[in-house]
Amino acid sequence: MYLLLAAGCLLAMPVYAQTPTPRRDADLNRFLQDLFPVQTEGIDYQSVFDALTQLHANPLDLNTATRDELAAMYLLSERQLTNLLTYRTDNGNLLSVYELQSVPDFDLLTIRRLLLFVTVASDTRLLGSLPTPTDNYLIVRYEQILEQQKGFSDATPDKNGKMPTRYMGDSGQWYVRYRYSRPRAFSLGLTLEKDPGEVLRWQPSASRYGADYVSFHAQVQNRGRWRNLLTGDYQVQAGQGLVLSAGFVLGKSTETIQTVRRPTIGARPYTSLTEYGYFRGATATYALHPTFDLTLLAARNRRDANTTTGKGDEGVIATSLLTSGLHRTQSELDDRASLLETNLGGHLLYHNRHQLQLGLTVLHTTFDKTYRKRNLPYNQYDFTGKQNLVVGFHGGYVWHNLNFFTEVARSAGSQTYSGGIGGVAGVLASLTRRLDLSVVLRHYDRHFHSFYSNGFSEGSRTINESGAYVGLKYSVYRRLTASGFLDVYRFPWLKYLVDKPSRGYDYMLQTTYTPNRRTTFYVVYHEEHKQKNRPGSKTTPKEVVGTLRRSLALNAEYTPWRSVTLRSRAQLGNFAYSGQAASAGFAFVQDISVEQGRLSLSGRIALFGTDDYDSRQYVYERDVLYAFSFPAYFNRGVRHYLLAQYTLNRHVDIWVRWARTDLTNQETVGSDLDQINAPHKSEVKVQARWRF
Hints:
Blueprint: H1 2-12, H2 28-35, H3 45-57, E1 60-61, H4 67-71, H5 78-91, H6 108-114, E2 118-119, E3 125-126, E4 130-131, E5 135-145, E6 173-182, E7 186-194, E8 201-203, E9 208-210, E10 213-223, E11 226-237, E12 266-269, E13 279-289, E14 292-303, E15 305-309, E16 316-321, H7 330-335, E17 339-352, E18 356-372, E19 384-399, E20 402-412, E21 421-430, E22 435-444, E23 465-477, E24 480-491, E25 502-516, E26 519-533, E27 544-561, E28 564-577, E29 583-596, E30 599-610, E31 617-618, E32 632-633, E33 636-647, E34 652-663, E35 680-691
Parallel strand pairs: 1-2
Antiparallel strand pairs: 3-4, 5-6, 5-35, 6-7, 7-10, 8-9, 10-11, 11-12, 11-13, 13-14, 14-17, 15-16, 17-18, 18-19, 19-20, 20-21, 21-22, 22-23, 23-24, 24-25, 25-26, 26-27, 27-28, 28-29, 29-30, 30-33, 31-32, 33-34, 34-35
């Protein structure tokens, strides 16, 4: 259905030349590397990158963006947000993004980072009363691992005549994306992807439309009182994310202030390749009054889930929700779309001149099968049943350069341990021109069940946690800044690989020095104390001991000429269980980027070594536009890549990427069906973009 609807829209839609100059392409991997210079547990980096990609693909209009929308970029302090809104009120619309230089407290570094995510719309009108689109493009990408992986090798029966498991499709990966949009006006998008090992198959009865993953959306905004109309795939962000959370949600990072608060940005199209965490249906936002907005949503998603036969007359039940999105083998296909999920919800928002904000959020989720996790101690308080209702109340108030925020939510409907409470409260403060502060308190009951939440937390889920966070950022002077945070938390019930209630804390310190526009240095140190099961413990429950993870990153960037940028990086880290020797690892990385006319080249060579997987080193790599590369360097070896981008004309861009890992202490790479019987792995990626 989505493909037919998209094809009809594309055929019926006239193509117009773009008026605005296209924004420069962003190195989003580098941006993310600066936010997460050292790896942290509990963060889904792929989801963060996908949200960052959507933010870049939907730039904010500086003349119409709300305070929450501007705050959602996590680039501006409370003082800068207040100054920008005051400047707009006093001076009218900005004529160019570079007019930000006239706004108090906006420095050149902040403005350069903002350029990736903002625009100033023109007044040209086409398509009746709809503005001219700023984005109208098609992207096609193909990638391939050159060495043969076990899953693609010939299968021969064992001595019992049983055939071993192999991937059903070929080893190529395809990605297609079409987008036709203008910020705050309309958006039409179609995304297709086939992962390696998956089969291209047309089977509408099984929701298969060629590629394994198909995503479509159509959106219209700001049509009278209708602030937002959206059908297809979408996400919704409301309050502090205890009921509905989406968008660019970072959690703890080197941005120690802004990222702890979740802004209310409403519904957004979903264009990510992450095959979960979104609604498929329709949503609408209507302005009941200039200060009251009502959002309603309805969705039906078929979720991947492990299923088994339940007790008595329960029939088939679901025991876990799967998030990989991979459907390469028969067992993975058996789990595909095996659980039907229906969501109905709403959000009522009161907002008063960006100062006071109050909201009520409701989400009711229904499954067509009973959902009950495996009978293990740490699953005791998880959701069980077919229906779940979450109701949340959130509020916020801005007073001068202080931003207070809170949300409280309650879940109900689980057949066991219903009625859990979740709550978060905090403040962001620009105390002086040089000093910013953030404080957040949170508590999530062990039986708080919210499937689409992503509140501020240490864990990957908003459940079974209490904690307190304090962050600081201080500008010693214009060229030198220092920042850090301390987060203390406890988990009242068991967790996976932690067989008793536990506690921990972590802190991060960072210093950035920019002696001139061409040179930047920063140092980041992160230390994390947690409790986990001791490996090899024979007791029941297993013995729980303390663990310590230390990470240090040193980064230097230098631009000797306008067309050449050099970046050197050293990462050191270790991980240890209490009473055991530490596992240590390192990575030394050298990058170079060259921009010459229509050609852009970037490359890397990295030397790495780790004692085992516990001391692995994550390092972002530059990739083709809207692709994510964040490999874990472990074992011992060398990694290199070369990326070339060439602009054929104002309509067509081509990317080619080569990457290879060579191990010096292993004879194979990977494991199970991904294993390569050679000490190296080579990857090739080709992408083209057509701008219409």
